[in-house]
Structures are given as structure tokens and as C-alpha cells.
Amino acid sequence: MLPEGGTEMDNVSIVFFQEDGIDAPILIEGLPGIGHVGKLVADHLIDELGGELVAEIYSLHFPPQVVIDGEGIARLVCNEIYRCEKDGKAILFLVGDFQSTSPEGHYILAESYLDIAEELGVQRIYALGGYGVGHLVEDPRILSAVNMEHLRPEVEAAGGSFENVGTGGAIVGASGLLLGLGEVRGIEGICLMGETSGYIVDPRSADSLLGVLSSLLGIEVDHTFLQERAEDMEQAIETIREAEEAKAREELNYIG
Amino acid sequence: MLPEGGTEMDNVSIVFFQEDGIDAPILIEGLPGIGHVGKLVADHLIDELGGELVAEIYSLHFPPQVVIDGEGIARLVCNEIYRCEKDGKAILFLVGDFQSTSPEGHYILAESYLDIAEELGVQRIYALGGYGVGHLVEDPRILSAVNMEHLRPEVEAAGGSFENVGTGGAIVGASGLLLGLGEVRGIEGICLMGETSGYIVDPRSADSLLGVLSSLLGIEVDHTFLQERAEDMEQAIETIREAEEAKAREELNYIG
Amino acid sequence: MLPEGGTEMDNVSIVFFQEDGIDAPILIEGLPGIGHVGKLVADHLIDELGGELVAEIYSLHFPPQVVIDGEGIARLVCNEIYRCEKDGKAILFLVGDFQSTSPEGHYILAESYLDIAEELGVQRIYALGGYGVGHLVEDPRILSAVNMEHLRPEVEAAGGSFENVGTGGAIVGASGLLLGLGEVRGIEGICLMGETSGYIVDPRSADSLLGVLSSLLGIEVDHTFLQERAEDMEQAIETIREAEEAKAREELNYIG
Amino acid sequence: MLPEGGTEMDNVSIVFFQEDGIDAPILIEGLPGIGHVGKLVADHLIDELGGELVAEIYSLHFPPQVVIDGEGIARLVCNEIYRCEKDGKAILFLVGDFQSTSPEGHYILAESYLDIAEELGVQRIYALGGYGVGHLVEDPRILSAVNMEHLRPEVEAAGGSFENVGTGGAIVGASGLLLGLGEVRGIEGICLMGETSGYIVDPRSADSLLGVLSSLLGIEVDHTFLQERAEDMEQAIETIREAEEAKAREELNYIG
After folding, report:
1. pLDDT surpassing 70 at residue C8
2. Which of A31, A101, A107, A151 to mutate to probe the D interface, most D CBs <10 Å?
3. What are phi and psi of B127, to 5 degrees?
4. Of the candidates D69, D74, D101, which has its C-beta nearest A179's C-beta?
5. How far is CA B108 from CA B15, B103, B111, B146, C108, in A?
6. Which helix (H) or strand (E) holds C168?
7. Section A167-183 average pLDDT
8. Fold for domain C12-225?
9. What's the mean pLDDT in A51-56?
10. What are the distances in angstroms from CA C243 to CA C82, C229, C230, C232?
11. Helix, strand, or coil here: C191?
12. Inter-chain CB proximity C76 and D148 less than 8 Å
């Protein structure tokens, strides 16, 4: 909830639910984007590691709407910061409903995210996303970018690919700006993008991304949930494909 | 009219026509939206209960235009606050020409509406609207959302439905933000949305919504006007349907 | 030209070329719009009455461009204030290249225009424009709106029509806002809109509008230029029509 | 990189890498635009003359993204100022990734560019661009505009054409505003636009533009790189044309 008593909404409002002991050296961003790959991974990790809600971020750069939860309660769209601890390692997560509605808003929000990161002692940001290729991908690579040269070997060792390099690629929105504006503040930034068709929510790509990410983090995470969702999705696609083939055969018989 | 003598328009300008004795615990929002369901209900209530104009709201977030009234007088587009008293109960209404032209403007205007609400002692807001379903609805349900959990039983008792819950629904614009931003200020918010096709102005849906609303308000309101308009509308649709069927039969005869 | 030495552009910059003796009780607005009807009338009047450039208005709410004049000199797009005197009557004109690129900009610019109007003692604004009807109009009416009730009889006596009243009409952009926001400052506003197809620049409609306007102003103005342009335009349309008919006949012969 | 430690991004952030001895009387603007003609010329000159990076310009009016370089390093999109010296003549260059995403941003950025120009003692700006004509151009003219009358003879003597004059032309974006807003500050502005189809990146048009520009600058520049790229492009187009003709002939044979 927003701070009570305020009479005007600022560009960005941040509400902390805890003040002490919430520092962490790592921030993982998984906001909505292509194939919801980053969001799937971040939400899965928060579930698996038992994340605790640390802060909510409201902004007039988000769409002007509320979402209705399973109880019929409307709540303002927002982004959220969660915090987890695993094997003595503390990790923050940036997740939420939407990215900005405008180009300027993307910059303003990214600076707010980095303000929070600095306040909480973050030294490295993992920005997660999808990399749309326009066709189904059987074995998705995790295409990567970094904001400081010394980070590349570590990413490659963990299975991240730099094969996209040299194609004039760009990273649009929060993931890109966290790297670009983060570098200015001396915060390391690693962007991991799971190859995905761009047409569907893609848990298979998320599963691959989780592999590289957990290797980089040095933590073990159960993949079962993402793998089951990926199998469900693949089963559904297969069923549709078979139905279409059956229909095509039928039409051929009819003609013949 | 706007405050005289001003040399620059603020984001939002509010002009009060009365200062004293205009408090009320209830605000009903019926701004233009899907099927104009909320607007029909609010305008009808203001007529029936004899509302008095309390304030006008101007903003550069509204479309840059004037509307021409029946006498050829142009007046700037605005939203208005009316006040009614019925059976010792005081009610404020928020109605008007338009909602914001931009996402940011929606937030800025909603905060202004809430500033007025707080100033006038409002403790509960009813946000009225339509819920577009893409086809004609014979017996429109009144789908509902609340901004505090304790409000739901009351809404259900009055005939509001929560069957939309769990579908990931959203409420966009003023209605949504009054709930979301109102909650921050401790103002109860109930959104009532009459099912409607989304293609026509829908007095039938408004009539159903009025039933639930007047039950929640605990006041009796005459429905005649809305019901007559609904019958006129249904008669007009029936006439079109018959004409189309007659035309279709004729064409069949011609072919046959 | 903009004030020299400034290091940052304000929302709106106004540059006066004269300071003294430039007051006038009347402002005529003829900015670009439907059929360029208002612009044609205002530009014609400035020519006929020998207007003098009084001020230029620059704004980041105009399109970000320069226009190239007949000598190859680029100049920033702007609006301009001209001043004329005829039979002891002083009149200001607001003309120019463009209206605002955004809804908010329309409001901000209109307030700036009214600031100038107040400073120069303007008591009445004539806002000129076109009224698009979607088909060629032989004898265009001058549809009208006013911002104060007492102005209507005068407009009707001069030949202005209020037959558009009651259709829920709106006036968008500078013309509308000068009436709406002007009323707040106690400045009389009369909007005259020449019926026009909306597809072509329409000197015929402008010629009709000039008739009503000069009657309201109580000044005689030569119409020759607008009438000649109207005849040229009608001749061109007639030539196109004949060519199309000839082509249609030819095709019939070919088929027959 | 942006100034470290800042917690909020300004509209425009300028980072200087050198402070002393970077003045120059000439600024050449070659931002992305039609056919990338201006960009090709400016980038070529920086290469040939050995330009040194003097400043970077960041802004929330640029697209919210990073670009990935050949090493996989992401960097925030920006514009850049380079400085060259040749035959004792110092020249500044304004080049970069993007122009503004909004009309207002174009004005704000152009004023920032002019602030830098004034600070560095610039007395003349060459704004380079393409002039789209919708078809391939064999021998592209360099169409021109100036912001002060006395500049025209010099441009004509160097081979710049003013044949576009009198067609109501406009120059949109940074090139136009540098002339229009530059004039206000007493900075001479010359816009050179190479004719180009508008469909392809056009090194042939850039090569022609370089001829006029180097004559105006009074410096010799090697054209080899641009000419080779132009020949490669023309070869590629010729190959496509031949393939299409061969295909057309084949189809004719098949039919015949």
C-alpha cells in the first residue's frame, strides 16, 4: 500500500515493509517481457527460496489500473522487491505487474530501482528476459550481455552464450537500463536472455535460464515446477499440431 | 467556470461553488466508460435525488475542447461534483464529459478526486462502470470488486457478483484508481460493473446496476426513466433485427 | 526570432517586436485547421488591412522543425501576432504554422494566447475555423458558437447560424479553448466555422465566413482575392469531374 | 559513462572527458536520419581526421535501451561529441545512436546541443542529412538551407543547391532545430541534405555531400571508403535487378 496521508502521487513511490537487515549483494530483475521468461524464473525462485516482501513500488508511469485478486480485492498495479536467503546468501528480487507505459518512464523507474539497489548494498544485478526469435526453440540458448568487461568469462563458464554479439543487438526496457545506468553507479550487471519464440509464455526457456543463473549464483534450485509447466505447454502444442494434421488429412480425403 | 484572473492553467483546477455544509460520507463515481453504464446510473440518480452542483474540475489532462450546449454556448470540458440529500443521507457524485487523455493524467486526476473526497469527509466511494462481454446480455450481472476485504459480504448481500474473480481481471481508469489509491487513504471503495455488450449505450445494464447500488445505499430510487430508455433501446434493436431477417428472406426468394 | 542568449527553451516563448501602442480590443484567431478556412480568412484580412507583425510565439509544443522560405532561409515554426488598424478600429490577429502536437500543449498554448490578449486589452476574440461535413458544399453556412449568452443575437444578425446547436458538437483545439478558457477571464468569444468538405483547402467557405465576420466587425473588406481563389478551385474540380466522365463514357463505348 | 553518484537522471546529462583546449569554431551534426546520409559523412570524417571523444550526452528522451557491442558489453544509448584538428582547423562533431523519441524531446536536446556549442565557442554549425525523393538517384544533388541570408552565396559556390526552395519544404528534428534555435544565439547554420531514395543507407549520396562539405570547410578528405561502400551497394542492387530480370524472362518462356 502507498504511504498514507499523501495528497499527491509522486512519479515513483516506494513503500518499505522492513527497514533493518534487508541488505543483499545481489538483485535479480524478472519483470514482464518477451515470453515472460524472466518473470517465470524470478517468480519460481521467490517461491523455491521462500522470498519475503520487502517493498512495493508504485508509479504513474505504470498503466492506470488495479488488478483484482482471487478474493475480489482490487489492488493498484505495482512492482515489488522480495528478499530471500539460501545457504547464507542473501538475494533481492525485482518483480511485478508491468513495465513503464512511456520511454521517459522507463528511465525514471530504472533510476528508482537503482536507488533501492544502492540503498540495500547491491553490488551485482542479474537482469532476466527472453530473446524472441520468431520460431519454436527446442534447446534454447541463454544469450548474454554484461555491463563490465570482467564479467564475461564468469557468464560463459556458467553456460551463458555471447553468440548474439556483433549483430547490433539492443536490450529494451528495465533489463537494458539496469545494466546501462547501473554501470554508472559501479554496479555489475549481467543480462541473461532465454531464446524463445516470442508467441507464448515459455517455461522451457525459463528452465534453461534457471540453469545458467543458479550456476552463477552458486545455489541449487529445484527445477521441477518449471519443467512440469514446460512439459504441459509442449503437450498442449503437440495436441494442437495433431488436430491440425488430422484436419488437413480429412480435407485431402474429401477432395480426393 | 475556472478561477478568474489566473494566468496559467494548473494540471488540475477545482472550482467550488459552495463552501459550507457540503460534506458527505459517500461519493459515487459515474464517469464515461464502457456502455456508459456508470454515467447513466449516476446521471439518473442526480436527476432523481435533485443534485446540486458543488464543484467543477478542469484539467489539461482532459481533451482540449469545448462542448456546445443547446443554446450554442461553448463550455470547456470538465468533470463535476454534485451533492444530493435523501432521507437524511448525503451523497456526492463525480460525473462529467471525459476521463484523462493519458496514463499519467489518470493518476493525477484520481489523486485530485481523492483530495476532494477527503476534504468533504468521504468515507466510502462507489465506482460505477460497465463490464464489456462482446455480446448482448439479457440479464446483466453486476460484477464487483472492493478495496478492503470486509466490504465483500455487504456487496454480495446487495446482489453484487464476484464470479469474475480469479480471471486476472483489471479495472482501468478512474474507477480502478479510486479503489487502489483510495485504499491508501483509508477510504472504502466498491466497484460495481454492469455486464454489457460494449457496443451500445446500455440503460438495461444501468438499471440492473441501480438495483444493487440503491440496496447498498439503503435508499429507494425510481427506475422508470432507465427502464423506459432500456425498452426503447430493445425495441430499436428488435426493429433492426426484423428488418434484417425480412431482407434475408427476400434475398432467398430472389435466389429461389 | 527567440530572445537571444537564453540557454533553455521554455514551454512557450513570446517575442514582442513592439511594446507601445499595440493594444486592441479585438483578437481574430485563424490558425491552421479543417479546410484551412480560418487561416485563409485571417491571412486575407492581414493582407487587405496591412497588418504589422507585433509578436512571435515559439513552443516545444509545436512540431520540432524549421520551414524553408523562398530564399532558402530556414526559420523555426511559430505562431504570430499581427496588428491592423482600419477606420480607427484596431484588430489583432493570431496566425501561424501549426497548432500543438499534444493535448496538454493545446491548453498551455491557449493560456499563453490569452495572456497576450489580456496584456493587450483584448475584450473579444473571434475564433475562425472550418466545419467538416464530408461532402462538397455549394453554399456554406457559417456555423457558430459563443462563450457568453448575450453574444448570440449579434452573431445571428450578422448571418451566423446556430443550426448545429443541440447535436452535441465540440470545438477542438485553439478555437475551442480560446472560447472556453477566455470566458474565465471575462473575454467574449465568438467561434465562426465555415461549412467545408474537409478534403480540400476551401476559399469558398472562407469567402462566406469573411462576409459574416466583416459584418460583425463593422468594416468593409475586399473579397476579390478569396473569390478568385474559390473560382480557380471550382474550375479545377470541374475539370477533374469532366475528365472522369469522359473516361467513363470511353470505357462504356469500349464495352458496348 | 554518466556522472557517478547521481541518484536521478536529468532530462539531459552531459559528461565531458576533457575540459581544456577543446574549443572549436565549427560543429558538424551527423545524427541518424533519412538514408543515414549525414551519419555516414560525419562518421567518415571522424575516422579520416582522427577524432577524439570529448563528451557523451545521455537523455531520457532517447529510446530506453542499451546497445550491445562486439564484446557483449551493453552500453546506454547516447550521442557523442568528437573533436578533430586538420591543417590547424578544429572541428567538433555531434554523432550518435538516436534522435529524440518525442517532439518536446527534440527541442530540449537541441537546446542542450547548442549549450555545448556555445560553451565550446562554436560559430558555425553544419547540419547534415538526407533528402528523401522516393526513387534511386544516380547523381544526387546536395539540397541546402541556411539560417542567415549571408551564408547562401558561400554554399552555392561550394556546390550546394537551393533548387528545393519555394516548395514549402521543412527540416524535421535535430538538423532543423540546430538551424532555427541556433540563429537565436547568433550561430550560423548551414543544412546540407543529400538526395536519396529514402529506402536504403546511401553512401553515394554521402559521398556527394562530403564533396560540398569539404569545399565549405576548406579541407581535403579522402573519399575512398565512402566510394567503395557506394560501389558495393550499387553492385548489390545491380545483382538483385539482374536476378529479377532473369526470373521475369524465365516466366515469359514458361508462358510462351
Report:
1. no
2. A107
3. -100, 120
4. D74
5. 17, 9, 5, 21, 17
6. none
7. 93
8. Rossmann fold (3.40.50)
9. 96
10. 43, 21, 20, 17
11. strand
12. no
CB contact under 8 A, D170 and C67: yes
- pLDDT for D191-218, tens place per residue? 999 999 999 999 999 999 999 999 999 9
Question: Testing the interface with C: which of B13, B62, B68 to mutate, by most C Cβ within 10 A?
Answer: B68
Q: Which amino acid is at A170?
A: A
Give me the residue label for grid cell 550526452.
D57
> pLDDT tens digit string along C140-168?
999 999 999 999 999 999 999 999 776 77
Count of beta carbons in the 10 Å neighbourhood of residue C239: 10
| Nearest CA-CA distance, residue D112 and chain C, Å | 8
Residues with Cβ within 8 Å of C153's Cβ and at least 6 positions away in sequence, in order, are none
SS3 C172: strand
Average pLDDT, chain A: 92
Please state which of the four CATH numbers 3.40.50.10900, 3.20.20.60, 2.60.60.30, 1.10.3720.10 is assigned to the domain occupying D12-222. 3.40.50.10900
Q: Which residues of D touch C72 (CB under 8 A)?
A: 144-146, 152, 162, 164-165
- D60: Cα separation from own chain's centroid: 21
Q: Which chains touch D (3 or more CB pairs under 8 A)?
A: A, C
Instruction: Show residues of chain B in contact with A56, CB under 8 Å.
Output: none
Does position A9 have pLDDT exceeding 60, yes or no?
no
ipTM of the modeled complex: 0.89
Residue C9: exposed, middle, or buried by beta-carbon count in 10 A (0-12, 13-18, 19+)? buried
Q: Could you state, in chain order, the average pLDDT of each consecutive group of 10 residues for chain B (256 residues)?
A: 43 92 96 96 96 96 95 96 93 96 95 96 98 92 97 97 83 97 97 95 96 96 94 91 87 68
Please report, in angstroms and rounded to a whole number, the separation of the first and last CA atoms in chain A: 66
Residue type at position C226: L
Phi, psi of A219 (to 5 degrees): -130, 155
Please give the Cα distance from A60 to A76 (Å, whole number): 11
Interface of D with A (CB under 8 A): 1-9, 60-77, 101-102
Tell me the domain boundaries of chain A.
12-222
CA–CA distance, C72 with D169 (Å, rounded to integer): 9
Contacts of D204 (CB under 8 A, 6+ apart): D137, D140, D230, D233, D234
Instruction: Cell 527472453: give the residue.
Output: A130
Residue contact D176–C64, C-beta within 8 A: yes
Tell me which long-range contacts C218-226 makes (C-beta under 8 A, separation of at least 24): C218/C89, C219/C49, C219/C86, C219/C87, C219/C89, C221/C44, C221/C45, C221/C48, C221/C49, C222/C48, C225/C44, C225/C47, C225/C48, C226/C40, C226/C41, C226/C44
Q: For chain D, first and last CA: distance in Å? A: 66
Nearest-CA residue of chain D relative to A99? D64
Please say if the pLDDT value at position C4 is more than 60: no
Query: Helices (H), strands (E): how many in chain C?
Result: 6, 11
Q: pLDDT (tens digit, 9 = 90+) per residue, A89-122?
A: 999 999 999 999 999 999 999 999 999 999 999 9
Place of cell 480560446: C178
Cross-chain residue pair D185–C8, CB shorter than 8 Å: no
**Smallest Cβ distance to D70: which of A115, A165, A176?**
A165
**How far apart are alpha carbons B83 and B29 in whole angstroms?**
12
> pTM for the whole thing?
0.91
Confidence of residue C256 (pLDDT cuts 50, 70, 90): low
Please state the rounded mean pLDDT for residues C88-105: 95
Q: Do B172 and A2 touch (CB under 8 A)?
A: no
State yes or no: chains A and C have 3 or more CB pairs below 8 A: no
